[in-house]
Design goal:
About 25% of the residues lie in helices and about 15% in strands. The protein is α/β, with parallel strands linked by helices and about 450 residues long. The protein has 2 domains: about 10-315, Alkaline Phosphatase, subunit A (3-Layer(aba) Sandwich); about 325-440, no CATH class. Strand 9 (about 320-330) and strand 10 form a beta hairpin. The longest helix is centred in the middle third of the chain and has 31 residues, at about 200-230. It is globular and about 70 Å long.
Length: about 450
């Protein structure tokens, strides 16, 4: 029996786990202060707990999700790019569904996953229904699943994977009325200080918010209603989260906060409730150990993640004073490693790169076209340092603006007031890369052999 497994005889007394995860949401919810109407999802936060400083391991789908399911960073578990582009989690990795299955849980996937390109049963799911990944179409699928397990003796883990609000925001299966919720000319842009006030940005923000408020939010509300209607809510941990930041320029595909911040809401009746807001730094590398701990299954001790279940239960918890994030491959090579503390963000760029990487699903959009020249033409510096207390939008780089292969004499000096932080975080990032055997230390990471 692998580390984290438990005898089947204990399983019947454990709660169910419902994990609802969507694409590309970041923290763009009303309960996180965003100017968008999400009463159903906000109610999860009000009933349970909200993690205010939740971050992902990578600002892209497959690497981030692989961390959620394994408790390892992408460069550790090998998923350094997208599953449909040659990268996949190997069958040898212990995942959250595999660990729960060994602990006596039924494991199911409804909708979407992106850790492997096909055969999600490889991840440890006994039951799979991938017929749709649309939020509203999944309502009946989820309801049927709960109805069939209302009187089950064994607990279940169900992962409900939602497509929206992935690009494109405007979809042919949604009516034009869906997009009437927000007027591009009137939509506030306070949540996007890193983007210009331009027509294309306004168009995308209005469409994004419409999809969130008119599609994603009501669907999640229906899932919770079904859980309660079938008498399962009181014995279930309900979790809502996302894989990474919004599919907007300077968010998805970057390690700035808009790219790596993630919504994370947890409700467990009698245990995690009351609308608590936790400001501690957490990362989705911690997700699998935390869920196992909440369910009463011993979390593994040999992974990079650590359980923050004590924090959720209101117990003493030391927690993290820094989180790490990374990116290696998306639709192009974009090697970045990052350490973030409560006050500072240090970014190390490992190649000749444009100022801001804009992924292939964002670049041709209305907002992507607005910023193409500003983001794509200038070259990115080797190091970036941001004082998040004074500069939450990460607009003033306090490190040198030296580019790769540029002579030091031609570059600016780091801000002397933050030189100690720069040196310390540079050393901490390198130590983390060495401790986790990051292949980037040995040079450029090749694309996988997909022949």
């Amino acid at each position: 029996m692998t580390d984290g497994a438990a005898p089947d005889s204990a399983a019947s007394n454990r709660p169910n786990l419902v994990l609802v995860h969507c694409h590309d949401l970041g923290q763009h919810l009303g309960c996180y202060g965003a100017d968008v109407d999400t009463p159903n999802i906000d109610r999860i936060a009000a009933d349970g707990a909200r993690l205010a400083n939740s971050f992902c391991s990578a600002p892209q789908c497959s690497p981030s999700r692989s961390s959620m399911m394994t408790g390892y960073y992408p460069h550790e578990n090998g998923v350094m790019g997208l599953a449909h582009m040659g990268w996949a989690l190997g069958d040898e990795w212990e995942t959250l569904p595999k660990r729960l299955r060994k602990a006596g849980y039924e494991t199911a996937l409804l909708g979407f996953q992106h850790e492997v390109p096909d055969d999600p049963e490889r991840l440890g799911y006994e039951y799979v229904d991938s017929g749709t990944k649309r939020a509203l179409d999944l309502v009946d699928v989820v309801d049927d699943f709960f109805a069939e397990r209302a009187d089950a003796d064994e607990p279940f883990f169900v992962s409900v994977g939602i497509e929206e609000p992935h690009r494109p925001f405007r979809r042919e299966y949604l009516s034009d009325e869906t997009y009437d919720a927000y007027d591009p000319d009137e939509v506030p842009l306070d949540d996007f200080p890193y983007l210009p006030d331009a027509p294309g940005v306004r168009e995308d923000v209005a469409d994004l918010r419409s999809v969130i408020s008119e599609v994603l939010d009501p669907a999640v509300g229906r899932y919770r209603e079904s859980l309660a209607d079938h008498g399962l809510a009181e014995e279930t941990v309900f979790v809502f989260t996302t894989d990474h930041g919004l599919a907007m320029p300077r968010a998805k595909g970057t390690c700035y906060d808009p790219g790596i911040e993630t919504a994370l809401l947890v409700h467990q009746p009698g245990v995690v409730e009351g609308g608590a807001v936790h400001d501690a730094l957490v990362t989705n590398v911690d997700f699998a150990p935390t869920m196992l701990d909440l369910l009463g299954v011993d979390p593994p001790t040999d992974v990079s993640g650590e359980s923050f279940a004590p924090l959720l239960r209101g117990e003493p918890h030391d927690g993290r004073d820094r989180v790490f994030a990374e990116m290696t491959w998306h639709d192009r090579y974009n090697p970045i490693r990052v350490v973030r503390t409560e006050r500072y963000k240090y970014v190390r760029n490992f190649s000749v790169l444009p100022r801001v990487f804009v992924p292939m699903d964002v670049a041709p959009t209305a907002s992507g076209r607005e910023v193409h020249e500003e983001f794509h033409v200038p070259q990115r510096p080797t190091e970036e340092l941001y004082d998040l207390a004074a500069d939450p939008a990460e607009s003033e780089n306090l490190a040198s603006d030296k580019k790769p292969f540029e002579a030091a004499a031609e570059a600016s000096d780091p801000d002397p007031d933050h030189a100690d932080a720069l040196d310390r975080l540079r050393d901490e990032l390198e130590a983390w890369m060495e401790a986790t055997d990051d292949p980037l230390l040995d040079g450029p990471v090749p694309y996988p052999d997909v022949a």
